[in-house]
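Quick one, T. Sequence first:
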Amino acid sequence: MHIPILMYHAVSDDPSAATRSLSVHPRMLAAQLALLRAENFTALTFTGLAQALRNGGALPERPIVLTFDDGYADFHREALPLLTSYAFPATVFVTTGWVADAGANAAGTPLDRMLSWSQIDEVHSAGIEVAAHSHSHAQLDQLAAVPLELELRTSKTLLEDRTGREVPTLAYPFGYSSARVRDAVRAAGYRHASVVSNVVARAGIDPLALPRLTIRRSTDLQTFRRIVHADRINREFLADRALTKSWAVIRRSRYAASKIRGHG
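Structure tokens:
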């Protein structure tokens, strides 16, 4: 079985310039959810799917996973009511240093208005999975061991303290990871993690590298239908996958060069 894991970001009719291309209009999200309901998809949380794939658990006939990155305030305002109306669970990956009232824990540079901790509480209480997206939205594959561990453990600890539940799942910021990063993720106590890669998930994939499919502002409803049915999905994401492979080579070279400079 091939399972689409969809990656959303902002949900807004007037997104910031920094989030526009990866945002969706609330009306489009409503249309997409209506399509999923009409075509008998069953939504799962990211962790729910990852556990089923890992343990050989039963899956519905048409499973799908809806994920939302970064933790923008518009998730609470726009996406949550729509998800609730369709009784669709989802996963929101929160960058803990970007939380609106992070206070002394603030880190990184948010791209738009972000969820507050009280809104995160409401999202969690509504049955939405709250998972980690690092602490400052750093490029994890470029960090040395100590700051990498701090990014991973701080995010996990803050979310677990707030929700009172284990947080076993992480989405890599920008989708950037490496074997070294995945080892650190495992050591920090995560059991599942998400890359981008724009292919459908299936049994047997590394649970620390489960792939997602990018939903953009330019994704019309016909394209969305092809994506969720894995129909000609290679054509939709061919350029994305080529770029991802190229960037992986470049980023490995950059990290290796930084290590050489550090020992110079």
